[in-house]
Design a protein that fits this description.
Helices cover 36% and strands 29% of the residues. By secondary structure, the chain is an alpha+beta fold. Strands 1-2-3-4-5 form a 5-stranded mixed sheet, with helices on both faces. The radius of gyration is 19 Å and the shape is globular.
Length: 209
């Protein structure tokens, strides 16, 4: 557990994890329409526990400024429905116990390659060289399919899948770092994927119990 804007409880800092969280919070602010200056200030406030890691602050601002230039808010092809939207869906009674799946979407949007609703997921990754490669294969993991299942379970027939939003940077401390790479990929979710997730979810809970 972490105290907001203070070092983690127990004194163990995790700068890379907190860096990714700070980027997410800044992007959440951006997609609420608050603009570049305010969103950069949010990032700095979230990283206040690491004043000694100046290169991390510089790197984060560089990554965010490049993102804001690449994807101007007013030019997006989709409409923001909600940022940091809570998700809740009833799993059912298993072994006599009621179970509910809880989660939170980065951003829920409307539009896309197929008209409907999508969850916009931000991923901050590192890379060793500047490569415009395909999004990672782990995009359709339980994390992603859980959102899809919860949306369908809640009766949202307009939900279509995930827009994977990748911000890629070189490892901290790299000499002569290449410019950040920004990748987006629309990932439709099928009924078969959602049904498979539900089967595996119920089986897994049963094994744990």
């Amino acid at each position: 557990l972490h105290r907001r804007k203070i070092a983690p409880i127990g004194g163990v800092k995790k700068p890379e994890a907190d860096y990714g969280h700070a980027i997410h919070v800044a992007l959440e602010n951006w997609f609420k329409g608050f603009g570049e200056e305010d969103s950069l200030a949010v990032f700095e406030r979230e990283m206040i526990a690491y004043p000694e890691i100046e290169d991390m602050l510089v790197d984060g601002e560089r990554l965010l400024k490049g993102y804001f230039r690449r994807y101007p808010f007013e030019s997006e092809s989709f409409r923001i429905i909600a940022a940091e939207a809570n998700v809740e869906a009833e799993i059912g009674v298993i072994e006599g116990t009621r179970h509910v799946l809880l989660g939170r979407l980065d951003t829920l949007i409307e539009g896309g390659i197929v008209e409907g609703e999508w969850d916009l997921q931000h991923k901050t990754l590192t890379y060793n060289r500047n490569a415009e490669d395909e999004p990672p294969k782990w995009v359709l993991d339980w994390h992603t399919l859980g959102y899809a299942w919860a949306q369908r379970k809640a009766g949202n027939s307009r939900y279509q899948g995930t827009l994977l939003d990748i911000l890629r940077k070189q490892k901290r401390g790299a000499k002569n770092p290449s410019p950040p790479v920004y990748l987006r990929s629309w990932i439709p979710v099928t009924d078969e994927m959602v049904a498979r997730f539900e089967r595996e979810l119920v089986e897994t809970i049963g094994r744990v119990l």
